[in-house]
Amino acid sequence: MNAHHVKYLLVGGGLASSSAAQAIRGIDPDGEVLLVGQEIVRPYHRPPLSKEYLRREKSRAELFTHGGDWFEHNRVALRTGRRAARLDIARSSVTLDNGEIIGYDQLLLATGMSPRPLEVPGADLPNLFYLRTIEDAHQLHKAVDKAHAEGRPHEAGARTGPRGRAAVIGAGVLGVELAASLTQLGMSVDLLAGHAWPWDKFAGENTGRVLAAFLEKRGVRVLADARPLRLEGDGRVQRVAMPDGKIIDCDFAVAAIGAVVHRELLRGTPIAAEKAILADAYCRTNIPNVYAAGDCAAVFDPLFGKHRLLDHWDNAAVTGALAGRNMAGVKEQYSAVNTFFSDVFELTLNGWGEARQVDRRLLRVPPGAANGNGSPPDLIEIGIAPDGRIAQVLALGHAGEDDLLRELVARRVNVNGREEKLKDPSTPLGELLA
Ligand SMILES: Cc1cc2nc3c(=O)[nH]c(=O)nc-3n(C[C@H](O)[C@H](O)[C@H](O)COP(=O)(O)OP(=O)(O)OC[C@H]3O[C@@H](n4cnc5c(N)ncnc54)[C@H](O)[C@@H]3O)c2cc1C
């Protein structure tokens, strides 16, 4: 098939690619841009899929990163429903799954991730769900409706009253959000945390336990150290069997146990990758004119002196745009403080920094915060590296001090000898920055 050639080829149909397209157009009004995505829809935001969209508070139209005519007006060609199947570095070309060959001057790899599959017997039963795409969210909508109509009663043995039980497997950011949203949709939910507390990968025990207590108050049953042995049922998941013999009845299960990078396109290429594609602080891979951004990339972060795989919305927007600008000829380094957010019932979480460098954590609880009585938690968790410098800050609730909290991480403030002051909410945080 004849090769088509573009100046900028963006592979991946998510936020990172769409941010790159926008950034390129901000600099280069004319260079041909082609965005290839394997989903049939144009790029959209995924965070609402586990929140407002799942709860039917937001419409499908509100998910998209850009209005339908943005791509046309900005002359960004969209090839959706098409997978990039092969990358030929020597020829600077990508072959699509229909055999079409696209040559490029600059290539962006922004292929994102897909859910890590649950590997237990019964995981192939049809109503074990994952959540990554709009289509996945539709499947969950259907499962919720069916469970309400003909599922298990919330009260075992009851003939009347609400119906529908779900088991959520995994208590990271996504699992916790799913448990909250499904509960808000009127489901009775068991949240199976693989470790001693939810959010264990990035939050300390105290914060995790405060969160677990909050979830319980809101009706979610939180099971700690609960990794399923197998899923059971007659042609569909009806029970989750636990190693201790406990059986959790459900109408469906959702697994949220992490995600893996789409890296099939790297096969046979010399592009350096570990869990994710390695990119320098300019989002360049080890191959000239090939960039990587978003969830599929581990971009070098000068603040922490290492490559970091950050599968968060903000990172996809920031690195996508940065890659786009650099592809269009700017020479700009990553200089952001990574940030992520989550919403759980009426609780908001904001986080900055690097959990893997945290050696000890201290909590700062604002005066009057009513943690523990059912109101949403309000606290700041500060993660300190072995050398005394702040590595991570988590803010549960506590809107308003975001800039200060980000700055504590940005400056890697050394709190050696000042930890007691830091814990004391009467010490203004700004004092630490002085
Ligand atoms: C349900 C959910 C809720 C989330 N909530 C939050 C949140 O509250 N806060 C937060 O910070 N982050 C959140 N995130 C994470 C955030 O959405 C992601 O970090 C972001 O979507 C990553 O964007 P991306 O463009 O890098 O990758 P993706 O969004 O994964 O997009 C990549 C796209 O490329 C496609 N693709 C892959 N391979 C190919 C190929 N070979 N050819 C063509 N196309 C290909 C994929 O199918 C996909 O459509 C959430 C994610 C999910 C799934």
SSE layout:
Layout: E1 3-11, H1 15-27, E2 33-37, H2 70-73, E3 76-80, E4 84-88, E5 93-96, E6 101-109, E7 113-115, E8 128-129, H3 134-150, E9 165-169, H4 173-184, E10 188-192, H5 205-217, E11 221-223, E12 230-232, E13 239-241, E14 247-249, E15 252-255, E16 259-261, E17 277-279, E18 290-292, E19 297-301, E20 306-309, H6 313-327, E21 339-344, E22 347-353, E23 360-364, E24 379-384, E25 390-396, H7 402-410, H8 419-423, H9 430-433
Parallel strand pairs: 1-2, 1-6, 2-3, 6-18, 8-15, 9-10, 9-15, 10-11, 17-19
Antiparallel strand pairs: 4-5, 5-6, 7-16, 12-13, 13-14, 19-20, 21-22, 22-25, 23-24, 24-25
Helix pairs in contact: 1-6
The protein binds flavin-adenine dinucleotide.
What can be said about this structure in brief?
By secondary structure, the protein is an alpha/beta fold. The protein has nine helices and 25 strands.
Features of this protein?
434 residues; alpha/beta; FAD/NAD(P)-binding domain; Enolase-like, domain 1; 3 domains; seven-stranded mixed β-sheet; five-stranded parallel β-sheet; 9 helices; 25 strands; globular; binds flavin-adenine dinucleotide
Overview of this protein structure:
This protein has 434 residues and is an alpha/beta fold. It folds into three domains: 3-114 and 259-327, 3-Layer(bba) Sandwich (FAD/NAD(P)-binding domain), CATH 3.50.50.60; 128-255, FAD/NAD(P)-binding domain (3-Layer(bba) Sandwich); 346-433, Enolase-like, domain 1, CATH 3.30.390. The chain has helices spanning 15-27, 70-73, 134-150, 173-184, 205-217, 313-327, 402-410, 419-423, 430-433; strands at 3-11, 33-37, 76-80, 84-88, 93-96, 101-109, 113-115, 128-129, 165-169, 188-192, 221-223, 230-232, 239-241, 247-249, 252-255, 259-261, 277-279, 290-292, 297-301, 306-309, 339-344, 347-353, 360-364, 379-384, 390-396. The strands form six sheets. Strands 1, 2, 3, 4, 5, 6 and 18 form a seven-stranded mixed β-sheet that branches. It has a five-stranded parallel β-sheet with strand order 8-15-9-10-11. It has a five-stranded antiparallel β-sheet with strand order 21-22-25-24-23, sandwiched between helices. Strand 13 (239-241) and strand 14 form a beta hairpin. Helix 1 runs parallel beside helix 6 (313-327). The structure holds flavin-adenine dinucleotide. Flavin-adenine dinucleotide (FAD) binds at residues 11-17, 36-39, 46-47, 49-50, 83-84, 110-113, 131-132, 174, 262, 265, 294-295, 311-314, 316, 340-342.
